[in-house]
Design goal:
With 186 residues, this protein is an all-alpha fold. It is built from ten helices and no strands. It is globular, with a radius of gyration of 17 Å.
């Protein structure tokens, strides 16, 4: 649910009906962050394509690293919807409760293992102070083994979550415990 009208799956037709059917087949259900796009199915499809590319596409970043970036960006932006939604996915990849808590709160990031620490601290800085980014920030990522494609991927995942956080927060996208769980992992 959100603060704007949404088209339910039972009322959808055309492109929207096709997108909903594909989401249910591939992911198990339609997330609220996608449902809020239901008045503009083309934007929903483009959003979904971007999500699948940055989160599931070929990358030197692991799924855990990408989910960690998403959670840290969302925590930095105080986006409860995205923190909760992606905490579910992150828990599939990271079993250490202390590490999870640091990522979910975006606090203590400098104490994480070096590669993950540098990745999520870069994402946090890009989120909170984008104009302060310098070329030396890339050096910290290169120092832990990231190449230029990996660095681009960190920037893309960071930018994607900033985009999604703004949608969720500006349109009042809500979550329930049931909406947060039960998705199929791609």
């Amino acid at each position: 649910m959100s603060w704007i009208d949404e088209v339910d799956a039972a009322e959808a037709d055309g492109q929207l009906e096709e997108i909903y059917a594909e989401l249910v087949a591939k992911r198990g259900k339609v997330s609220n962050i996608l449902k809020v796009h239901s008045l503009n199915p083309e934007a929903m499809q483009n959003h979904l394509d971007l999500y699948m590319t940055v989160m599931f596409g070929q990358s030197g970043l692991s799924r855990a690293e990408r989910e960690a970036v998403g959670v840290v960006v969302s925590a930095t932006n105080d986006c409860a919807y995205c923190v909760n939604h992606h905490a579910e996915a992150l828990r599939r990849h990271i079993k250490d409760d202390e590490t999870l808590e640091m990522l979910l709160s975006a606090d203590g990031l400098e104490t994480l293992e070096p590669r993950l620490s540098n990745i999520v601290r870069y994402a946090e800085k890009l989120t909170s102070a984008p104009a302060a980014m310098t070329e030396s920030d890339l050096g910290e990522l290169r120092a832990v083994g990231l190449d230029d494609k990996d660095i681009l991927d960190v920037a893309l995942v960071t930018a994607y979550f900033n985009f999604v956080n703004r949608i969720a927060q500006s349109l009042g996208v809500s979550f329930t415990p049931d909406e947060m769980t039960g998705y199929k992992d791609e």
